[in-house]
Each structure stands twice: as C-alpha cells, then as structure tokens.
Amino acid sequence: MTALPLEAPDHERVLISHGRRSGLTIIVAVHSTRLGQALGGARVWRYASWTDGLADALRLSQAMTMKNAAAGLARGGGKAVVVIPDGAPLDGRAVHDAMLDLGDAVESLGGAYMTAEDVGTSAERMAVVAERTAHVCGLPAEQGGVGEPADATAAGVHASILATLEHVFGSRDLAGRHLVISGLGQVGGRLARSLAAGGAELTVTDVATGKRALADELDAAWVDPADAHLVEADVFVPCGLGGALTPEVVRDLRVRAVVGAANNQLASREVAGLLTERGIVWAPDFVVNAGGVIYLDVASGDDADADALDARIAAIGDTVASVLRSADEHGTTTLAAADRLAHARLDAAN
Ligand SMILES: NC(=O)c1ccc[n+]([C@@H]2O[C@H](COP(=O)([O-])OP(=O)(O)OC[C@H]3O[C@@H](n4cnc5c(N)ncnc54)[C@H](O)[C@@H]3O)[C@@H](O)[C@H]2O)c1
C-alpha cells in the first residue's frame, strides 16, 4: 500500500476522473511542464483503494520530472494510473474501455501530458489510447509508432554499468567481473545477454522459474530470488519491481556497486545514506533507466535519427559517471548528486 503523503503536493495539475466506459478511476498527475510537455507512462494496476493509486501517480509523476530533467530532455514529468480495484475482474473488454477513457482524460489536458506504456500497458494498448488523443507515443511499429523501449533501456543500463565499473575499479572491462541480475524480464533479459556477451560472469534469478532457460543458455548461475542480494559479487543489478533496496537488504549486500533498471529501487530515501555508509556505490535508478524515455522522446520526434539516438543512450553512462564523481566531490549520497543535476536543469529553465 502506498500512503498519500502528508505534505501538500507540488504538482501542476492532477486529474481524477471516472471513466465513463470502464467505470474505473483514472488519474493523470502532471507534476511539471517547466521543461516541456510532461512525458511518462500509464500504469494499469490493482490497488486496495483509489487513494493508493493517487499516491502512486503523485510519486511516479514527480520521479518522471527528475528522470526527464536528469536525462537532459525538453520534457516535464507526468504519469497516469488506471486503478483496478482489488478483486475486480479485468478482461480484454474492460482494459480496452479503460484505454479509451484514459485517452479522453489525456486529451482533456490539452497537451500538458503525453502518455506511453508502463506496467500493465503495452504498445498495443497505446494504440487504443490513440483512438482518443494524439498525445500518446510508443505505438506498435505497424501503426507508424516506435514500439516498446526495452532495447534502449537495457542499452542505457549497460552503459551505466560500464561507467560504474570504471568509477569503482578503474576499468570498464566486463571480463571476469561477477554481476547478479535480479529480474529477467524485458530489460533484465536483454541485459543478461549483453553482459554475457561482454564476458561477465553472471548469477541470475527471477520469481518466474521459466526464466531459468535463459540462465542455462547463457551459462549463468541461478540463485533463489530471496537470496540474490546475498551473493558475493562485483555488482548487484535489480531489474524486477521497485523497493528492492530495504535497510535489511543493504545491510546484507556483498557487492561494491548497485546498478539496475528497476524504478524506485530505494525502499526509502534514507537507504541512499545506508549504501554510502557501507561503501556501496549506487547508480541512481532514474539516471540509469532513462534510456526508455529518451527513446520515446527522440524516436517519436520528426527528425528521429538512429545515430543521434545511440549517442544519447550511450551518454547515460557519462551522466552516471558525473553523478558518481559529484557525490564524491560534495561528500553526499549519489541520490543527492542526481537530485542536484535534475534541479540544476529545472532551475535553468526558469
Ligand atoms: N521496460 C522499460 O523500458 C523500462 C524503462 C524504465 C524502467 N523500467 C523498470 O525496470 C524494471 C523491469 O522492467 P521490465 O520492462 O523488464 O519489466 P518486466 O515485467 O518485463 O520484467 C520484470 C521481471 O522481474 C521479475 N520479478 C518480479 N519481482 C521479482 C523479484 N522479487 N525477484 C526477482 N525477479 C522478480 C518478473 O518475474 C519479471 O520477469 C521495472 O521496475 C520497470 O519499471 C523499465
């Protein structure tokens, strides 16, 4: 459960609407348009109450402002949440109706927010949203869209891992480095392949045991999901759900660095301090996993160019390197350093 924050939100606009077709609560939180139209995914998720969905939308949209600013995009932060009440059935028709309702909600904001896929949505579902609004990206390629962004996200995480290795060990060489990947989905699976191809020794896990086939294919060791953080290695790579880094997990980690795709890895902001105290270098998630949003922004523009996109994705590694250096120079956590970078870009837009 995500509790609503006690402090007043600093969001520009929050729309809470009752979907006329689906009957579901649809929330669109526009945190900031200071750098441009807000961009962030639409999440379809089960919540115990609609206020939990609202809390999620408030938090996730604020995080998108930081992610887009740190990535140097001319984009603000926003997020949409379609609240599925616990226990409610969710068939194809209901999701279709919810996507049309989401399209109407997005359209009513007059271009303040552009939506895209996120947990529980997909390129195909964005195509339904597009029946009601033009403010949507990431449609399937066969409908003229740019598709899902997992390749770009994985490439950005890979670049971030190399930058972190250089910071910690003075070398970007993956050969002989031992990495533990937790979560072998769209991003983690791609990353496992690219890291293995680079010569890394891998230990991997997923709550879906069917992913063991990928471990076998890559000659990677398999560990129980609950024990992944106990493996002695160079880098822990969280690629499952958020909140994996609790104080208890950080206490038990036996790695020099944590770099992964998962959003909102820290169970609370304080965990950034615990990682620093333990001498574990944490590459901030919203810097590391920005490849997807960079892809959606660049690829859906009129002058999309594959080389320019590759350069922007590779530059995520440079941003990670500068955040890690800045944390050392200022004697702060890496989270504070990434926040400084994002705030500097937001302030410069004033
Ligand atoms: N897809 C993108 O482009 C993108 C962009 C930015 C951030 N992210 C974030 O990266 C993470 C992974 O995204 P994805 O698109 O690969 O999602 P996904 O759903 O395809 O994969 C997640 C995988 O993690 C596994 N998992 C869930 N809980 C786990 C646990 N406790 N231990 C081990 N494995 C677990 C799931 O079984 C699944 O295989 C998410 O947090 C997502 O928000 C993804």
Automatic annotation (TrEMBL):
GO terms for biological process: amino acid metabolic process. NAD(+) binds at residues 183-188. It comes from the Bacteria. The active site is at residue 79. Keywords: NAD, Nucleotide-binding, Oxidoreductase. Pfam families: ELFV_dehydrog, ELFV_dehydrog_N. The keyword Nucleotide-binding applies. InterPro entries: Aminoacid_DH-like_N_sf, Glu/Leu/Phe/Val/Trp_DH, Glu/Leu/Phe/Val/Trp_DH_C, Glu/Leu/Phe/Val/Trp_DH_dimer, Glu/Phe/Leu/Val/Trp_DH_bac/arc, NAD(P)-bd_dom_sf. The keyword Nucleotide-binding applies. Residues 147-349 form the Glutamate/phenylalanine/leucine/valine/L-tryptophan dehydrogenase C-terminal domain. GO terms for molecular function: nucleotide binding; oxidoreductase activity, acting on the CH-NH2 group of donors, NAD or NADP as acceptor. Belongs to the Glu/Leu/Phe/Val dehydrogenases family. This is Glutamate dehydrogenase. It comes from Agromyces aureus.
